[in-house]
Design goal:
single chain, three-stranded antiparallel beta sheet, 8 strands
Length: 497
């Protein structure tokens, strides 16, 4: 694989790697104390962008099969994992208590800032799940894993109870999306960030369950008893929030869509619809690791309620005949479920050995709850941080963080049109961030889809007022000028050698 620039010059066989000095500087910036009052501030901007860089380099290292120095450095850094979990708590508390108060103002005056404060939570989840893939992270995180289990379990509860899923990018949905107001656009972004964060929480649970035998007793008890993650996972697999059916057109047939890696993908045939997507695989992996752990089996009481939830999973094997072929480890899971089915419920109900008082004390969260004068925090955010100047500054910074060649390398699929979701062949040459499939879609995206304002913010260097006015007249007076604002896909994408 080789990445080509817009002129066709190769940029190298691999994406740029972080030097030890660069990695150290990013860690210094990203892993610092954070208060609710600072959330969304200029200081927080640098923390957020550093976190984004760390996420991208960690993801690419794994994808390219090389050593992930980012997560190694975080695990080795004393207190780093605890700091990231605390940042996660701050992000969640801010979203709950402050965002409703400032959402409308931020959508109107600082849309990029509004998106960033919502996207920080899933970014932190990505970084934490990458760290927890490694056994050493369990020892490094220690008691703070109790807090992380609570956060991740809350995410799964949200998926089971009432998942507010992002819309499927059908042609009709795309037509409606171009007519969304600024507030509606921000609310749709919020919905997607929350859904993505919950799915990343599932990955956190899956990685923790892989280390079940090495987890402290307090964390195991939090997983299996306090939060009853086994029951949550069984309910999640029955609920299947990562799957939806929709019509691509008003009169078209129902099509199955699966959600993974931040996007819905159509499964055109019945065979494709049976393919297990990443969230489902993670849920099965986590459930299997917990159910089949000998210590968990001794302590986990199979009540009638839990038994019913677990036995409902047998229908999954009947619905998808290829499930065992795709996930061979589920053979042991199915045997265990059949054992429960054939066992006397009264015998299963008495298998728990309980937990000691010392264990109950250890199971308490180690981090203090996030508290603040939330109305005052909201007022300060509106006055100081949700301003057009702060919005433009963050947009320019993010444009450099989301370098187009880095985004190309991270993409696992062909570009999709930002307006309708169809395969895209043209890219905006101003921000180099959006793709379009045709002239009409780019016109829609530019005029009513919000890209006109976003592109002006992200384009670097920023145009002078005179140039901006001239460009406004040019684009506003000619739809041809709008479509000229793109480059062919063949000039700027990953090429097969």
């Amino acid at each position: 694989m080789s990445i080509l620039s817009s002129t066709g010059a190769p940029l190298g066989d691999e994406t740029p790697r972080l030097s030890p000095e660069q990695l150290g500087a990013l860690l210094e910036t990203a892993i610092r104390p954070l208060t609710a009052a600072e959330y969304g501030s200029q200081r927080w901007h640098s923390m957020y962008t550093a976190t984004e860089r760390l996420c991208m380099h960690s993801t690419l290292a794994v994808r390219e099969g090389r050593e992930d120095t980012v997560t190694d450095a975080i695990i080795e850094r004393t207190g780093a994992l605890a700091t990231l979990v605390h940042h996660l708590q701050v992000a969640r508390a801010w979203k709950r208590f402050v965002l409703p108060r400032v959402r409308k103002h931020a959508a109107t005056h600082a849309a990029v800032v509004a998106y960033a404060v919502m996207a920080y939570e899933p970014s932190l989840m990505v970084l934490l799940q990458a760290c927890l893939f490694k056994r050493d992270a369990v020892d490094a995180a220690a008691d703070v894993l109790v807090d992380l289990v609570d956060i991740a379990a809350d995410g799964i509860v949200g998926l089971v109870a009432d998942p507010d899923r992002p819309p499927i990018p059908t042609a009709e949905g795309a037509a409606g999306a171009t007519q969304l107001s600024e507030l509606e656009t921000v609310m749709q972004q919020e919905k997607k960030c929350t859904f993505d964060s919950s799915l990343h929480a599932l990955a956190v649970i899956a990685h923790l369950s892989h280390h079940t035998s090495h987890l402290p007793l307090s964390v195991r008890e939090r997983l299996t008893h306090t939060r009853d993650v086994i029951y949550l996972l069984a309910s999640l697999l029955d609920r299947r929030p990562w799957e939806q059916k929709a019509r691509a057109t008003a009169k078209g047939p129902l099509v199955t869509y699966m959600y993974a890696d931040g996007a819905w993908t159509a499964r055109a045939t019945a065979e494709d619809a049976d393919l297990v997507c990443k969230p489902e695989a993670l849920a099965w992996m986590a459930l299997t690791q917990l159910l089949l752990d000998a210590d968990v089996q001794r302590r986990y009481e199979i009540t009638e309620h839990r038994r019913a939830a677990l036995l409902s999973l047998l229908a999954q094997f009947e619905r998808n005949q290829s499930l065992l072929t795709q996930l061979p480890f589920l053979e042991h899971t199915m045997r265990y479920l059949l054992t429960i089915q054939l066992s006397d419920p009264s015998e299963l109900a008495g298998t728990s050995s309980g937990i000691s008082i010392a264990g109950l004390v250890e199971a308490l969260p180690s981090l203090e709850p996030v508290s603040a004068d939330w109305p005052a925090v909201a007022s300060e955010f509106v006055a100081k941080h949700a301003t057009p100047a702060a919005n433009q500054a963050l947009a320019v910074t993010l444009a450099s963080v989301y370098d187009w060649s880095m985004l190309e390398a991270m993409s696992e699929s062909d570009p999709q049109c930002a307006t309708c979701g169809a395969p895209a062949t043209q890219r905006c040459s101003g921000c180099r961030a959006e793709w379009y499939c045709s002239r009409p879609c780019q016109i829609k995206g530019w005029k009513s889809g919000g890209h006109k304002k976003l592109c002006a913010l992200m384009a670097t260097p920023l145009p002078s007022p005179a140039i901006a006015d001239s460009a406004e007249e040019s684009v506003g007076g000619s739809e041809d000028a709008t479509f000229a604002h793109s480059v062919p896909i063949r000039e700027a994408r990953i090429q097969e050698l």
